Amino acid sequence: MNIQHSSRTDRWHTPSHITSMAQEVLRGIDLAPCSEAAANERVCATHYLTEEHDGLTVPWALYGKPVSVFVNPPGGKRDGKSNARLWWSKLMREREAGHIEHAIWLSFSLEHLQTTQGDTPSILDFPICVPRKRIRFLRPD
């Protein structure tokens, strides 16, 4: 099933045309910190962290080196807090710690622009690309 957005699940896979562009820009993806095996078939990250690994709590540096990261955060909330905000804050902490060489953050709505503004740098503090059309994310099944 291929639909634009639904709150029935917070897990949506990135279409291949987007992941291909991310791989090209990053010259390979070292880490997808909020992913799963099926999603990584498109992302092709060298390493990925699943819900069980909890990418929000573990360091993102691999073997002591900064990484290229592709972040497509889950939707919804965690403990009453926006997942977009939590994952953006984590990305900014990892950047500040020197664990990030390059990153691509994929947002599905303008709400992400709003929820990521606050204590940490906002998405608007970085170069952004707004797709001409809404991205049609894919259900994992």
Task: Give the helices and strands, then pairings.
Blueprint lengths: L15 H11 L4 E2 L4 H7 L3 E2 L18 E5 L5 E2 L2 E2 H14 L3 E6 L4 H6 L26
Parallel strand pairs: 1-2, 3-6
Antiparallel strand pairs: 4-5
Oligomer: single chain
Instruction: Please list the strands of the largest sheet in the order they lie side by side.
Output: 1-2
Number of helices: 4
Please give the number of β-strands.
6
- Report the average pLDDT across residues: 83
Uncertain runs are 1-7
Molecular shape? globular
Tell me the radius of gyration: 14 Å
Q: What about the largest sheet?
A: 2 strands, parallel
Q: Which band does the percent of strand residues land in?
A: 5-15%
H/E series, N to C? Answer: HEHEEEEHEH
The share of residues in helices is: 25-40%
Derived structural class? alpha/beta
Distance between the termini: 7 Å
Describe this structure in words.
- The chain has helices at 16-26, 37-43, 83-96, 110-115; strands spanning 31-32, 47-48, 67-71, 77-78, 81-82, 100-105.
- With 141 residues, the chain is α/β, with parallel strands linked by helices.
- The strands form three sheets. It has a two-stranded parallel sheet. A two-stranded parallel ribbon has the order 3-6.
- The radius of gyration is 14 Å and the shape is globular.
- The termini are close together.
- Residues 1-7 have low confidence and may be disordered.
